[in-house]
Amino acid sequence: MFPRSISDVSNQWLKKVTGYEVKHFTFDNVSEGRGFAGEVFKLNLIYAHSDLISNKNPSTLIVKFASQNPTTKKMVRPYAINETKIYSNLSKFYEGLLPSIYYSGCDEKTGDCCILMEDLSTKIYGDSLRGLSLAQSISATTSIARFHSSFWGTSKLSQFSWLKHSKLLLRFMSKIVKQHSPIFLDSYGNSLSREFQELVAIYPHKMTTIWNRLMDSPVTICHGDFRPDNFFFDDDGNNITVIDWQLCSEMKGIVDIAYLFTWGLDEKNRKSWESQLLTHYHDTLISKGIKDYSESNIRKDYILGLFVPLQILIVASTALNNGSQRGEQLISLVIKRMQSIIDDHNLLSQLSRI
């Protein structure tokens, strides 16, 4: 058994999974307005002996649970299961890009989950509202390209039978997108261009075709929610730790880059840096021995990849929006960024040819 909410966490459970002699703890909710589908808390630990706080015995930890909203919990259940398995199976091998994990478990029937991890708040937190600097964008692109290269090709992915297949996620997400696209248009239609409105109306009917192309070789393990709100940078900005792996699946890695540019860069910077960062992604793959993905194919797949952050925008703004001020600001900002991308890349015309 594991705690299913913050009220279930006890000193005894913390000692069992960490080995730390915790006398008492307090907690703070740190997830509000961050676009997370679950609930995230910082645990402030008090030890029986104050001298136990050290690099080995941290003063704080982070614990994540499934949403206490029954509708949201039911909707994201497959993704919660996915994330706990990612952390259980990969965190030890990719510590640094993935946070250090003390516990990761999930009830697959109910969707309840619990993840206990290191507190990354001493690092520089990425902010989707502010967007990334060029140096941070290069660091994020480099890190995810190296991660992608480690799982490049179906032969390497076959060992991860627990990983949710993209077709299962497609089936689940397709239903949600079809249900919530009209709601998105009712809620935000007045602020959208005609092209944006048409794109949202047409996309659900083209979604399966686009995903099938994004699942064609070459594929890798794709994070699926690669945006600054899930990033933590070291002081020098050269290393990044990434959280929130719920949408992780087998897909073309360029989807993560498309997501980063949509949710993580303001319009002006995206226009200025887009080509440079796509080239950098390709060069990093080459440096890690990936030779079967030309830069021209990367750029072609990038256009397809831009539809994935669009669908996340539709779902996040309607089904997962918690009504917080920051959440509303983030949705409004990403709509503007998406509008710029639709215009610059003629996405409506691109979609009509699919």
Notes on the structure:
This protein is α+β, with helices and mostly antiparallel strands and 354 residues long. It has two domains: 6-118, Phosphorylase Kinase, domain 1; 124-352, Aminoglycoside phosphotransferase (APH), C-terminal lobe (Aminoglycoside 3'-phosphotransferase, Chain: A, domain 2, Alpha-Beta Complex), CATH 3.90.1200.10. It has twelve helices and ten strands. The strands form three sheets. It has a five-stranded antiparallel sheet with strand order 1-2-3-5-4, sandwiched between helices. A three-stranded antiparallel sheet has the order 6-8-9, with helices on one face. A hairpin with a 6-residue loop joins strand 8 (231-233) and strand 9. Helix 6 (194-214) crosses helix 10 and helix 7 packs across helix 10.
Q: What Rg is obtained from the alpha carbons, in whole angstroms?
A: 20 Å
The SSE string, one letter per element, is: HEEEHEEEHHHHEEEEHHHHHH
What is the fold named in CATH at topology level of the largest domain? Aminoglycoside 3'-phosphotransferase, Chain: A, domain 2
Estimate the helix proportion, in percent. Answer: 40-55%
CATH class of the largest domain: Alpha Beta
Total domain modules: 2
Shape: globular
Structural class of the secondary elements? Answer: alpha+beta
Put simply, the count of helices is 12
